[in-house]
Amino acid sequence: MNGVPEDLIVYEIAVVVPKRNLNEENKGYDCVEVLVNEFRNVGLIVERVLGLSDEFIKLAAPLETLGRVAAKMQMKKTTHIGIDLQFEWEEIKAFVRQPDGSLFSWCERFQCYRHLIYEIVNKKNSDVTLKFDGKEIPWEAGESLLQRLELEGIVKQVFPLHDEIKRKKLLRSWALNWWDFTAQPIDEIYAYFGTKIAVYFAFLGMYTRWMIFPATFGLILQLIDFGSLKLLVFPAFFISIVLWAVLFFQFWKRKNSALSARWHLNFSVSTSEGYKLSGREWNSLQPPLELVKNSGIDKTKEKEALQRYEWFGYLKRFRNDVIIILSIICLQLPFELAYAHLYEVLKSDMVKFGLTVVYLLVIQYFTKIGGKISIRLIKHENNENTEYQADSLVYKVFGLYFMQSYIGVFYHALLHRNFMTLRQVLIQRLILYEVLENLVENSLPYLKYSYKKYRAVRVPLKFMFHSNASLLLRNKKKREKGLTGKIQFATRVEKEYLKPTYSASISEELEDGLFDDFLELALQFGMIMMFACAFPLAFAFSALNNIAEMRTDALKLLAMLRRPVPRAAATIGAWLNIFQFLILMSICTNSALLVWLYDQEGKWKLEPGLAAILVMEHVLLLIKFGFSRFVPEEPAWVRAKRMKNATQAQDMCSKQLLRTISGREKAFGGYIRRKKPAGTNKSQ
């Protein structure tokens, strides 16, 4: 379990309830005692830990318990012949194990835990009255016990626990291992954090390694004065980085496909070329279950209902996108242009600094409002699952950040045509922003944790003062000494409870902290790509920042935050399309910068140099869209493995079908032969 021998107990889930005084006479009716007994009845291993102000119920599950609940959930897993079949505990040897040797991945185990603890229901025909500190709580028939206690505020939180053995191993081999630069134990990250976080770090590592080429090229351009040759060198640099970006994302798709095959993620087995990774290319407008159940009654009405549902879904999404785009154009664009213009015309540095402070405060508030509006709009879309809702949120909110991050740079680049001012803005946005962002990103969780620790110690002491003032006075000096010293907790589970969660800055409902991490990468990529000809050295700064980002993000996840809830998404989702959009934007903006560099007098005549830039722009656009045909998205060994598995699956299904048909024919023939003499005698 979790990468260690599966017979060793590893507590992976914690349930937090308030600390209380329990009388023996009410022990059998106490809701927490009932909850603990129900946990044990479903096969979970329970350990109860008392903290300063709360009680923690730690849960572990033996392999058999997880296996039987996986079979009950009809979970599909990959077999040794490559077919995804419904899991059965009795046929455990037929299913492929994870790279770390465990039967279930962390995502699958977490799903099993949630099913176990939330499917504890009142199986009696009548309501059961539970008690908690003198308060009566009705537990209705068929109602989930954990959900009822969450509604009553008795169960404060349910969260995953860190595995100390794996956590310390990852700290040594990953977070604190600075000598390998971009090397990362991706399989161990996948086993510990799940698919989505592992895919993020795989993308970050590959992105940083590939950035060595443009960083070196940009450093050469910055250090060497090419003089009049810059009119040839800068277009060559521009062409090279566009080709670099296009190739990088094509090879990233190949790596993503290889990782999915290595981790045995779900595949739809087919011999056709229409193979897709499940969860990657599904239609986001799948009909609801009611329409599917009612299908087959009237084919005409069924077709009309499905078409109506499909097109209404597209119209709702189009309506929401139009609302967001018009809001950005009518509200945010004038505000951004006004700030950029004032920053350009003001002479005093102090006034500029004050203007920037006001701008940052207002834009943060504006972004939060935009995120809340986007979430409300998404709830009225026909998205298939949470991952598609998260992708829709990413598209909408990135529009806000795109305008916020780039409109000022566009203003300086295209209107004022001042290279020095443009480079100053880029240095400010890239270096200062990324340094401050990393400081805030890594210091804020520690400050939150320290504040919660302080409150966790203060609250019990305040309760002690009201309950026993004389005892408080007798031990005043001892407690004051303890308060001024280092705060210590007896249990690790309480420390984890006080740590912040890995949550997004815009919405905890649909996104986790990966939104902010991917957003930081996307904004960085757009900045260095769209203005590459103006500041080639930006690639070197970004490469150094990403090397540090890998280790600081790892340290943040392993030491500063709770263990994140795993997400099963096998790709980077909507962010891939955003990166592709930024490549297209970079072709247009760098072409404009080259025209500006070539036509310094502003005559804008169609001379050979300008014509060559326009031709180059169109050629690069064609290359961008045509390169996917030359670099396949799936490695040959993955394709061969898939085809082999599909062929084996067809052979086995064909043989089983022939045996079934043959058995039925024999049974039917024997039945006829047994019936024939009776019929013959009767006719005679």
TrEMBL record:
Keywords: Membrane, Transmembrane, Transmembrane helix
TM ranges: 197-220, 232-252, 322-341, 353-371, 392-414, 521-547, 568-598, 610-631
The keyword Transmembrane helix appears for this protein: yes
Pfam families (UniProt xref): Anoctamin
Anoctamin transmembrane domain sequence ranges: 189-644
Keyword Membrane: yes
Subcellular location: Membrane
Signal peptide: none
One GO CC annotation: membrane
One GO molecular-function entry: chloride channel activity
Topology class, membrane: Multi-pass membrane protein
Protein name: Anoctamin-like protein
Native source organism of the sequence: Gossypium australe
